[in-house]
Fold this sequence. Notes:
Layout: E1 7-11, E2 17-22, H1 23-26, E3 34-35, E4 37-42, E5 48-53, E6 64-65, E7 68-70, H2 78-90, E8 95-101, E9 105-110, E10 113-118, E11 121-125, E12 137-143, H3 145-153, H4 161-170, H5 174-178
Parallel strand pairs: 3-10, 4-11
Antiparallel strand pairs: 1-2, 4-7, 5-6, 5-12, 8-11, 9-10
Helix pairs in contact: 3-4
Amino acid sequence: MDQCAEQVVLVDDAGQPVGTADKIGVHGADTPRHLAFSCYGFDADGRLLVTQRALDKRTFPGFWTNTCCGHPAPGEELAEAVRRRLDHELALVPTDLHLVLPDFSYTAEYAGIVENELCPVFVCRLAGEPRPRADEVAAHQWWPWDRFLDEAADPGSAISPWARLQAPLLRDLVPTSARV
Length: 180
């Protein structure tokens, strides 16, 4: 989907939809709060698929992060948006998809671009090897969960700010949920 034509759902402080806007127009120095999601995908051995954001992405280029992030389209269920983005970015189909942090929210800034998102967090199981799109993912690796937690806790690592904030909240939730 053309990023210029992609719509995001604007939300109020209570997380209720209040409108829509072009994705490209909302990510700037004064970003309105909008709906997004994060997904953490694990293989059968409990390893997390970590991705490096494409170097030409407008927001947080080159940062290492969780498996997949995105924005639901207006009227799209969050779980369907997760499935759509996993397929689009990595050519993967999730199983055992679970919402684990429904109310996660954050604000972060890098290079003059602000993220201001209500960002529910999902975990899932993934089978097979990803086939990433170069315009979305610069690199990918399968990490043991403890390595991800250590990297997220290291202030000098290149982990995305949302993954850094999500990691301690997921510390005890993910291994149980990922192995359902």
